């Protein structure tokens, strides 16, 4: 599900903006239905989240007529957040001159976002809605993109997703999602457009180099080469960047030596934990084998869950099933008469540790069979007999090819937090080192990660003197408060609250 690839006015189509920044674009196909839900409650079964907002409200209120006012009130608040975001130029929130400028340009939008910055989706939903079944739906409607229930999903992110799916919409890049990365990389390698830029593949960074002044000065690659730089930007997770156990232990996989890990990273580890990885099935399926379930092939994305108690399960292929069938929108990515099914469900690395080669293969087959059986029983009868291509990925696959600790999808709140207030920005406590990706503000999702990239580029450009800023001393003092001292202050406040409740 690709957000941020629309063409509507505003600042939130961040993938479109990223491509435009390098004079590129991709052809895309709009998805008329974001998700087709197959859920335990009869009122929620076969619920389709339409791109058309009026159609979506009508379908939901028909199922919950007694919650008509609450449904509209909840989504009105989501739209308030989205409109505020869409009205602002989205750059670095730790750059004081930019903050001052956008506040003067649109104070109402800024106040709206400040109001919701420390709020979670569940807080707003329970203000408006009483029906527990509908609240459970809002939980899973958050879970499918944040891998957390509504009470641990920031309202800023929720407002963005629950509104943009009807504004910019979900758009599938023709040829597959890989075309996005290919277009960006090819553009950056074009020396006529971007002289001096280059992209290296298979060049794994193993260490961030730090000088005697405790400043990041470049990276060391796995082949021993060193690349010097005035700024180092890590898109690895914070676990892989700073290590797993904080500054008290040496962690070989960490990019930053334990002695150089900033104290604020310890706070981050207290507040956030890793979400599970996934068991992923990539299937090539004959379309004629799916005749009995053909009605469901009008929609690209499906969510399948038989019991609410298993919504967040990540063992034994018992949890929520995610299904994507890109050939529904773009038949060119498969041979004629064939469909591609990407089927996945959360899975912890602990399910796969210590397995020998034959045990590993057997476990993959066992859990893949379980997923296919669940899908045949609930949504796609005949799926198994139509399979011609069958590939299975596990958390070990994700860890190996994505370079992420335990193959994790990303960080989730370890406990109930104050919305996005505790999420770090791009600067780190190590000068010269910046982080981007889903373990920086505003968190998980392609559009959110694209925002973190725009924000990092802006802050780095300011720090290198390529963009204007406030007088140096004032900029440094304010940036320090926004970036580091904010987290320390929140940490002390949360610790005091915990001490007071003991």
UniProtKB/TrEMBL annotation:
What does the record list as GO biological process? Answer: carotenoid biosynthetic process
User: Which UniProt key words apply to this protein?
Assistant: Carotenoid biosynthesis, Chloroplast, FAD, Flavoprotein, Isomerase, Membrane, NAD, NADP, Plastid, Transit peptide
The record ties this protein, via InterPro entries, to:
Amino_oxidase, CrtISO, CrtISO-like, FAD/NAD-bd_sf
A UniProt-annotated Pfam family = Amino_oxidase
Q: What is its EC number?
A: 5.2.1.13
Gene Ontology molecular functions: carotenoid isomerase activity; oxidoreductase activity
In this protein, which residues make up the domain named Amine oxidase?
A: 167-460
Q: So what does this thing catalyse?
A: 7,7',9,9'-tetra-cis-lycopene = all-trans-lycopene
Keyword rRNA-binding listed: no
Q: Where in the cell is it found?
A: Plastid, Chloroplast membrane
**Could you tell me the membrane topology recorded for this protein?**
Peripheral membrane protein
- Which pathway, metabolic or otherwise, does it act in? Carotenoid biosynthesis; lycopene biosynthesis
Needed cofactors: NAD(+); NADP(+); FAD
Similarity annotation: Belongs to the carotenoid/retinoid oxidoreductase family. CrtISO subfamily.
Which NCBIfam families does the entry link to? Answer: carot_isom
Recorded protein name is prolycopene isomerase
Task: State the taxonomy lineage.
Answer: Eukaryota, Rhodophyta, Bangiophyceae, Cyanidiales, Cyanidiaceae
